[in-house]
Amino acid sequence: MKKFLSVLCLLLPVTAQADTQALQKAIEGKHRSEANVARDTYRNPLKTLELFDIQPHHTVVEVWPGGGWYTEILAPYLKKEGQLIAAHYDTTDTQAPYRPDSRKGFEKKMASNKVYSAVKVTSLMLDEKTGTLTLPAAKSGTVDRVVTFRGAHGMYSRGVLDATLAHLFDILKPGGKLGIVQHQADPHQDWMSRNIGYVGKDFIISAAAKAGFVLDAEGYFNNNPKDHKRYKIGVWQLPPSLSNLKTDEEKAPYKAIGESDRMTLVFVKPL
Predict the structure, then answer these.
(1) Which of 127, 134, 182, 185 is nearest to 159 (CA)?
(2) What is the homologous superfamily of the domain 17-230+261-268 according to CATH?
(3) What is the pLDDT of residues 67-99, one digit of tens each?
């Protein structure tokens, strides 16, 4: 009987999972800026990356990483066994004026510390007039995980959400997962008439299903019930942006709310 069980154990697949200890070590890394560490309380990086099931040996694409808040954590976590692909804006992408400088600033950060030495920086670019892909983030079927943080509102407002999700589905291996964190609109809130940063959860789930994804998991730890989501300039009135707010007195009520109410969704590419 013992011999039979031993053979059975060898035949059964071993289910790997996120390395909590290694993730926590990366989160506590001295290379992280104080300003970014201060936001951990709102962004819950350990719980988020555990839910996304990012394992140390994975090839991971981070979509449009901006200033690299999550790159600070993913880079050291994946450095030895895996591969982090930072699919940033291309320097030739002037469809939004901030994009070339954002890419240059990110590359400067990647060169500033050896912890980022293994990060592969690529370009993900879509033609916003036609909604078509022009520069791919990675090759088809080569990626274990794709993550995108607070970017779906921009994809939708610029008319490239469907094309982006289709591309992310294509680059994932069968069984690979897409993790999305996004400012979450209320069910009956009008978020489509103008870009306020918030997007409906059911809409995101439907768009992902259209691309071929299946909803795999949802986390509620990035929810913020204090966020009433009705601001003159949208989500950017909240921290960390605090846009158009100059004095401490003006900023105080928004700081008391904290960062936005966010959905945290995991989708899988079926086998």
Answers:
(1) 127
(2) Vaccinia Virus protein VP39 (3.40.50.150)
(3) 999 999 999 999 999 999 999 999 999 999 999
